[in-house]
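Write out this protein's structure.
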Amino acid sequence: MKATATAGPLLISPTDHALVLIDFQSQMSFATRSIDAVMLRNNAALISRAAAGFDVPTILTTVAEKSFSGPMFEEITTAFPGQTLLDRTSMNTWEDAAVIDEVNRIGKTRIVFAGLWTSVCIVGPTLSALDQGFEAYVIADACGDVSDEAHERAMERMIQAGVRPMTSLQYLLELQRDWARGETYDMTTGIARQFGGAYGLGVTYAKTMFGASEGH
């Protein structure tokens, strides 16, 4: 066995997956208790800007937007100006023909999911995608549910089935992966500074006080 300086195939890259953002809507968020609403919106903004900045093909989907659930978070829609939101009646996104048409048009076999609620809107499509031979990832801290128990059991169920969990900041940094990639360096650190919590504060401090740069 000999090690090589190459990334493993289980790591995501900007070109090997699609991102599906599901039901980040007011009515769904009112009952979400497993994550603070401010943190949820922050993480949704972080992954949206990461995907938009790295040109990751992204599907935005809502349920009963006009009649019941309300609009998708502006933190998401402003990252994808002009993009059509696919509105559904089905709780399981994977059972919506328009969404599946878009999945097939994009043509990625690896899909990253996030949305509300974990136990319904995320479990349904991830398990359905797995059953059809797709790889499924879920951004756990950009999902939420009506209780900690509901979110945790949903995550366990998906992981047991083969879904791979990750976090919002991990998603951003895995897309960048190497600080020497100068073409996306400023964008990545800019997103981190705005939405990366304490890590972002650290980046701001280092750059302001010392002119520090991770790539040097």
